[in-house]
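Researcher: Next entry: alpha-L-fucosidase (Terriglobus albidus).
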Amino acid sequence: MERIDGLSRRNLLKRGALALASARLARFAKAQSVAASGPYGPTWDSLKQWRMPEWFRDAKFGIWAHWSAQCVPEQGDWYARRMYLQGDACYDYHVKTYGHPSKVGFKEIDYLWKAERWQPEQLMELYVKAGAKYFMALACHHDNLDCFDSTHHAWNTTRVGPGKDIVGTWEKIARAHGMRFGVSNHTSHAWHWLQAAYGYDPEGPMAGVRYDAYQLSAKDGKGTWWDGLDPQELYTGRNIVMPDGFKTIAEANAWHEKHDRVWDEAPPRANPEFVRTWYLRCKDLIDKYKPDLLYFDDRELPLGQAGLDITAYYYNASLSWHGGQQQAVVAAKEYSPEHAGATMLDIERGRAQGILEAPWQTDTCIGDWHYKRSLFEKHEYKTPDWVAKSLVDIVSKNGNLMLNIPVRGDGSIDEDEHKFLAEFGRWMSVHGEAIYGTRPFKIYGEGAPDVSGSHNFNESKARAFDSSDIRFTAKGDVLYAFVLGWPADGKVSIKSLAANNAMYPRKIGSVEMLGGHGRLEFRQEAEALTIKLPAKPQDRLAVYAFRIRA
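Model: Predicted structure:
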């Protein structure tokens, strides 16, 4: 039987997608030919020509709005998948609040996302006051809804839900505030992540009844709000369908876990049309918004060759936008040593154990990635003190911190988040001098090791910092030393800056504490540099910096 790039004609006809597939294939071929124009080719060796732009090294701190329709229920992360897993708290919430997923699927949550209280100008002003130098918008999550004016995907926020170009609005406002702008693309996972929407309850009164994704096609939308849209494009089609016959939740969960492990890192050879469309959607995102930072939620690059193709296209496009100067940054997760240098290493909810030669980034969140409602008066967010100490540690090791402030489905942030941004911003207004535009010192600092194991997700394993932890940054002839706690005896001792120490062989001429107090008393002796502190700390956050000059 005749095949079109791995798909049988009969299969395409059944899906009513032959003409669409042919058109997309033509656009995909044209886009790849355009991507070839420039010094970067779609290979790892070619991409390793890339060098980190100075703007990113100077910026140090960014804020991320990890905001999509999954924030509407306010139940935290992965709602679009978890609502289809019987036994999960999100499933229970969905059945109680909206109805059974065989009748009310995630596409209805997309529809309910109205962003009616979204005031992006005011939010951006808060982010700037908090000290952010770059801002990143979520462009498309695993739930497969494009949060921008997408040419190649009808399920986007200009047609569904808010009726707005979310990314385009963020981009204009961020740039108007002098910030660099980034976008995050998580959609490479959608093709298998959403397969739970084709499943069924293994237990209970609805046992065996398939969920909405399995049942619906474009023709079923006639006369509804989604008339003209195809649910199969949203849910990605039946790629890895859960078989009939499971009788217990445990059996179904074991099947899902097995297939997640097998498919999470593999290009979807079962759905090459998804790969082609993904490429065109990502190219569209790049062309329309010209981001300074493109974040992939993937190990190395997404979807095999397609990830190499789009990265080469982006690097070449950035050169054309900026008169031959490379300003683009691609953030991706851990990679093989032979691929190091083609993109920037991004560490999710973790940090490096020492200075990394190449600049890198931590991405983390003060709470859940997607907004989670608190059952109590106060949310269990990371404190400004915790984030300040983490930022200092990360910057001392040649990294940046990108921090997510969760946004409610309606577009607002809660009172605890307002307080967090205000308090952290006050600290940054004093200590930013020792953060922005700095470079690592010869060593990152002093103190016992604070993290261990692999980079990703090690923040939960880290010990608490205290006054024995010192971190260094440098800018020109100035050395900055942070102490990550207030010493009980009112003295800071820094062994690395002892007299005649090879680490800092110069005689220290002055020590000042950022935020006032003038010059401090100090002694540079054979054992250590000892600094006498003021009578009491001037900030609620236990993170203090000293400006040290020879």
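Model: Note for the record: The domain at 445-549 is CATH 2.60.40.1180 (Immunoglobulin-like).
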